[in-house]
Amino acid sequence: MATTPFPALSISSHSLSSPLKFLPARTSRIPSPPGALTAPRTLIFPGLPSCRSIGRRSRNIGRISAEAATNREPMVPPYNVLITGSTKGIGYSLAKEFLIAGDNVIVCSRSADRVESAVQNLKQEFGEHCVWGTVCDVREGKDVKALVSFARDKLNYIDIWINNAGSNAYSYKPLAETTDDDLMEVVATNTLGLMICCREAINMMLNQPRGGHIFNIDGAGSDGRPTPRFAAYGATKRSVVHLTKSLQAELQMQDVKNVMVHNLSPGMVTTDLLMSGANTKQAKFFINILAEPPEVVAEYLVRCIRSVPARQSMKPTYIKFLTGLKAYSQIFSRLAFGARRNRYLIED
């Protein structure tokens, strides 16, 4: 799942940004993407579409989205929510919190058994007609297209799409010791899978009556800090922030007013992914100080996520659970007063 592994060798959690970037523990807005680009000269390469034809397609998308925005229905609850990688960990907890709030939810993962189990448990708790599930491997374009078809069949449209599916291959070791299979698993899931999901989510939402919001979950490395022992994971999570900013700029350039892409940062969550690497003194130290259970993180994040459509806002946001200020405050409390020692793991 897309949660933050522990920092290593230094305070390298993605949430520990410099003091100048400290933000309160609430929804915070990132700067608006750049304005419209100046018109490029028309360059034509054999076998490739001209910049002029690309520009025409962009203007067509802009006209379609402008019409959709003009006729857009107010986005009011209950919201229709789709969460990738949502049969366990933070994804499952997010699904539960949306259901508690009265929303409709679609869960998915690669494992048919986990999907069946998750849907059965959620239906027992929240009822038969508010949750659905399907198998989807985000690395496969055909699977994600099928996921969109499934969502349309069950709910007609999706208001909130959360890209949570992610992987570290449960591997914490130097890159030089990492296998080809592990590298392919991490990069294909976290980077290629995210791009495919964003593409399909944007295409789905462009002509929806209510538009839509896409939230991309980041992780350790997203702020550019080093992530030794999980370098590949950190590199892919750094790319999440860049991809989100690029998509925001593309949507603005195309004059899309009814779809927005946001970043979502859960911080350190006590999932299987995080705990699988808790085998060093430093890992145990940071997990005890900074990590929180999935249900605690999900409750905060869902409240912030739902506030975006509630405000009828189409401005980009970066919602963070573990801010730098909160992290340093908890570290100070530990060093000064011994707070959170042995909270989850017995430290040496």
Automatic annotation (TrEMBL):
Which key words are in the record? Chlorophyll catabolism, Chloroplast, Membrane, NAD, Oxidoreductase, Plastid, Thylakoid, Transit peptide
The UniProt catalytic activity note for this protein reads: 7(1)-hydroxychlorophyllide a + NAD(+) = chlorophyllide b + NADH + H(+); 7(1)-hydroxychlorophyllide a + NADP(+) = chlorophyllide b + NADPH + H(+)
UniProt-listed Enzyme Commission number(s): 1.1.1.294
GO CC aspect terms: chloroplast thylakoid membrane
Would I find Transcription among this entry's keywords?
Answer: no
Q: Which GO terms describe its molecular function?
A: chlorophyll(ide) b reductase activity
Q: Which domain of life is it from?
A: Eukaryota
> InterPro entries in the record, alphabetically?
Chl_b_Red, NAD(P)-bd_dom_sf, Sc_DH/Rdtase_CS, SDR_fam
Keyword match DNA damage: no
Its subcellular locations are: Plastid, Chloroplast thylakoid membrane
Q: Name one GO biological process term.
A: chlorophyll catabolic process
Q: Please state what class of enzyme this protein is.
A: oxidoreductase
Q: Which PANTHER family match?
A: CHLOROPHYLL(IDE) B REDUCTASE NOL, CHLOROPLASTIC, NON-SPECIFIC LIPID TRANSFER PROTEIN-RELATED
Which family does this protein fall into? Belongs to the short-chain dehydrogenases/reductases (SDR) family.
- Could you tell me what this protein is called? chlorophyll(ide) b reductase
Q: Which species is this record about?
A: Iris pallida
